[in-house]
Amino acid sequence: MLALAASDVDPAPWVDTLLRDPDPAVNFEGLRWLSHRETREALPAVKAFLARSDLSFTAFEAAVAAHNTLSGVPEQGVRNAELLLARLRDKNSSPSLRAFALRLLPAQDWRPHETGPVARVSFPKELTPELLRELLDEGDPDISREVVLALSDNPRAGADLLVQVAADASLDPVLRTHAVAGLAAVADQQIPLLLRLAGEEHRPLREEALRALRNRSLADPEKETLQDLRGRFPESDDLFAALLTPAVLFQNRPPATDTAAWKKLLEAVPGEADLAAGSRVFHHASLALCANCHRHEGRGRSVGPDLGAVGVGGDLDWLLESILQPSRQIAPEYLPRAVTLKDGRTIVGIRMQSYTRERVRDVNGHSVTFELDELASIAELDTSLMPAGLALSLTDR
Fold first, then answer.
1. By the 8 A CB rule, do 147 and 137 touch?
2. Which of 130, 137, 194, 218 keeps 20 to 30 A from 143, CA to CA?
3. Where in the chain do CATH 2.30.30.100 domains reside?
4. How does residue 64 score in pLDDT terms, banded at 50, 70 and 90?
């Protein structure tokens, strides 16, 4: 496949062979080749490929991008509201494909929000609360999960429905756990519900409620309730401690420069790693905030590198070091700049464009555009936009 892509061979005769190959990597590279060469006659085959029920999210995303390019709208990237909405509404389509379509429908939201919870995404006007409610009522676990995750990324639009899901004891507790994670963005308005859920027997649900309550102003009676619950659930003691006495997170922690000591500390944590909890922390609205700058599995923002494949055969020591010391190694394309304007303003962020206009994406993911004649100076910085001390906001587990 790679040899073909590097050659001058006409892709058209290879379309069916590449898209019917059982190896997903061949499908992916084939789609990329067809897009790069703008092989318009491959569009029917790409449409057929998009209907396959066995596609992974990566393959579906690549096929949408190829469909857009071959349809003459490459600027739409991996989004095509008309195509995705049609797939989402098609009840004869595979639930997994409908879920993938829903994941791609929201657009990254770069608008500054002066008040209220930050929305990482915005919804097309057709993706209404009524449609999302209908999708939830279908009861399919994949689709329901994507509905809740989409609402979690847009708490301004999704808080009411997230509350309903989180509070409904008849629903799957895993789905409710995702809803509670989404409510972290509006936790100040949901303290009574979160306190009640902090007493749930289902451990992931209980612990997600405890995470959502972190960094909130709690009254003494609320703290007493949590202290009583702490005695009932000793297996969650680390999260109760982080909530009630946050200073505990700074105790007995190695220095950030000692990666080996941190690795030893984490290897001593009992039990298996909870990957689902890790994903929720990654996308959490008030703790790690990873998704404010990074994408993973189609969710999050594109300020820093996409982390979708970071754990596949990767160097875990390097990953841990990057979390502990984010400024030690910065890829050139993510090197932050301080842009000073003639009116005295200074904007720090990733430089996105340098043609007739300048565009900088700041640490909050907001895009700022200005004319070249407004520019006073641009200086490269050696400090990453990723904050230092991230590990000190998290429990060992």
1. no
2. 194
3. 332-380
4. very high
